[in-house]
Amino acid sequence: KPRVGVLALQGDVREHELVLTNLGADVTLVRRPAELSSVSGLVLPGGESSVIDKLARLFGMQEPIKAAIADGMPMYGTCAGLILLADRITDGIAGQQTFGGLDVTVRRNAFGSQADSFETRVAVPALGTPDMHAVFIRAPIVEALGPRAEALASLEDGRVVAVRQAHLTGTSFHPEVTGDYRFHEYFLDLVRSA
Ligand code: GLN
User: Fold this and answer.
1) Strand ranges in 31-68 using DSSP code E only, listed in sequence order
2) DSSP state of 131
3) Which residues form a coiled coil (predicted)?
4) Helices then strands (H, E): number in the chain?
5) How many Å apart are CA 79 and CA 64, to the nearest integer?
6) Domain extent listing, the chain
7) Fewest CB atoms within 10 A around its CB: which of 72, 76, 95, 97?
8) How far apart are CA 102 and CA 167, in angstroms?
9) pLDDT averaged over the chain?
10) Could you report the predicted ipTM of this complex, rounded to two decimals?
């Protein structure tokens, strides 16, 4: 059984915990460094990235998470979680930091008020067919990818909404609320082969 964690500082922790448990993983809610040390992979949930960043620093979790990323621990971030894995963000609140690891630039709240939340289908070639039903909630967009990051999915207008780099995966949208858990399976496969 893969032992994985869900970063449980803020956000939709419970949804990811349920998905991962249903997929057969042994799930720990991670709030402290010792809990992070006990898992082989970590999911960063959706929520508010600036709040998760602040709480991570307050709880002494920023450095351990950065170290785990540098050490090759598989991580999967949805929405706010993608923002936290990005090396660069635009439109962060003053002083907002990320853990980094993905060689991308991410814009927060990229769809603005005209499309605060919406659902659409996106092709994810790496996950096969059918296309994925994707739920976007005040979602970020990947504005630029460095050479080490690979786009896994784009909207019809070409904007990138899923990325991977080695052991790190991020999506702008929230598979944990749709019943299509192929990204969670993909993450668990990376944990098993790490
Ligand atoms: N807008 C949020 C942020 O900046 C992300 C929203 C989400 O995770 N659904 O962190």
Assistant:
1) 42-44
2) P
3) none
4) 6, 12
5) 21
6) 3-193
7) 95
8) 10
9) 97
10) 0.95
